[in-house]
Specification:
mainly alpha, two-stranded antiparallel ribbon, 2 strands, globular
């Protein structure tokens, strides 16, 4: 009897030890980051920020952009220097945007899932929002519209297509939760409706008060789009969270990926700390704001130097570089067979821009007394509509392969060629001597 009791006690002790190990593992992120002192913390922080991403090789472009802009403002650089300033600023924003996403994920580790999702929603498209604010301030309303449109097209076709393509080259067929993705595509269809009606109103010449009707309709639609976006956040993070989570990854993932996850956990345990993340977010936001101002101020000169239209630069060039971090993340997750996360990066980001950033810019233009609207014109609206339809068909069955990815990439290349030969009337009126 005593032997059984002692054996049960040993089993209870083992069970107790197992139960205690789990919270300890999860609480690594809450451990004081200054436990080993300031010198070790600074060393760890600088290593995590500057030496863990290959995109940081582009960081020298930031001081080069500042120097080039100084020569441009001084008048000694000539018209061509605007092209260099734009190029350096564009390349410098790429690593900043990638580090912004890294720090946001690190900060989300110190919160619950709901607040973490809100943080990712807020900072995920911060670069596009800052560029749009500076463009609004400068009265470049068409640049705002085209750059946001380009971000949506880039995420839906190029980023998602490359994820399907490279993931499909490693796995014959990949699966994902179609219910959660279909919710995103449904919201994108609503955004297309909100953006197409002002264009239809103008093209049919049926507005009651001229362009004032388009602006008024856009502002009302923007309020509704923002409402559905916050409703979508509640749907995603509270009521139907299981549709967007990847709970079965730990059971179905290949065994060789287990080691990589353990390494990621160790990196999280050696994190920046909550307040360290806040400080770095502030620093990165300052530099992104500086480079965004350079981009807006020099986009005209850059288009002239490159002999390209401002529309092509706004829709194709800006978003490709600005979304470089999301592009890389989506491919990495797809190659690791984490398709729900990959699609969340590509389609989720497009949903945020269409339902949050775009309506926010319209309402902000209202506050700034700028007639910003949702009228993308017929050509751009058609491109957006066909893109959403194609992507909706591709993700409807919850399966992907390399051919679907190649189809989306080629669709993006066709759109890029179309914008290369497209002359934007509104930009032509704003810059009469430019190839708009």
């Amino acid at each position: 009897m005593s032997y059984c009791d002692s054996k049960d006690a040993d089993l209870d002790t083992e069970n107790l030890q197992f139960e205690e190990d789990q919270p300890l593992k999860k609480s690594k992120v809450t451990k004081s980051v200054l436990a080993d002192g300031w010198p070790a913390y600074l060393k760890r922080t600088l290593f995590a920020i500057f030496l863990t991403s290959k995109l940081n090789l582009l960081l020298p472009c930031i001081p080069l952009a500042i120097i080039s802009n100084w020569y441009t403002e001084d008048g000694t650089g000539g018209v061509g220097s605007e092209g260099w300033t734009f190029t350096f600023a564009l390349l410098g924003i790429a690593p900043l945007a990638e580090r912004l996403g890294f720090i946001t994920e690190e900060l989300a580790g110190y919160t619950n899932q709901t607040l973490g999702g809100l943080l990712n929603a807020s900072f995920g498209n911060l670069t596009e929002m800052i560029v749009s604010i500076f463009a609004l301030k400068g009265g470049l309303l068409r640049v705002v519209q085209l750059s946001l449109l380009g971000s949506i097209l880039s995420n839906l076709l190029l980023v998602l297509g490359c994820a399907f393509l490279f993931g499909g080259l490693k796995y014959k067929e990949q699966t994902f939760n179609s219910q959660g993705i279909n919710a995103n595509t449904g919201l994108l269809c609503l955004a297309v409706m909100g953006m197409s009606l002002p264009a239809i109103l103008r093209s049919t010449h049926s507005e009651m008060h001229g362009t004032g009707s388009e602006v008024a309709l856009s502002r009302i639609s923007s309020v509704f789009l923002l409402c559905i976006y916050f409703a979508y956040l509640y749907f995603q993070l509270i009521t139907h969270r299981e549709l967007f989570e990847d709970d079965e990854d730990d059971e179905e993932k290949p065994e060789r990926e287990d080691g990589e996850e353990d390494e990621e956990d160790e990196e999280e345990s050696a994190g920046l700390g909550m307040w360290g993340c806040v400080v770095w977010l502030g620093i990165l936001t300052i530099f992104i704001s500086l480079l965004s101002e350079y981009l807006v101020d020099t986009i005209e000169g850059a288009a002239a130097k490159w002999d390209m239209s401002v529309a092509f630069v706004s829709v194709i060039i800006l978003p490709i570089v600005g979304n470089a971090a999301e592009h890389a993340s989506a491919i990495i997750f797809a190659v690791k067979n984490k398709m729900d996360i990959s699609l969340g990066v590509a389609i989720g980001s497009s949903t945020q821009i269409a339902l949050l950033v775009f309506p926010f810019c319209v309402l902000l233009g209202w506050v700034m007394d700028q007639p910003m609207d949702l009228n993308l014109e017929v050509f751009e609206t058609s491109a957006l509509c066909t893109t959403v339809i194609i992507v909706g068909f591709m993700v409807s069955d919850g399966k992907s392969n390399w051919l679907m990815g190649l189809t989306l990439v080629l669709a993006y290349l066709i759109l890029a060629c179309a914008f290369l030969f497209h002359r934007d009337v509104d930009l032509k009126l704003q810059w009469p001597g430019m190839n708009a």
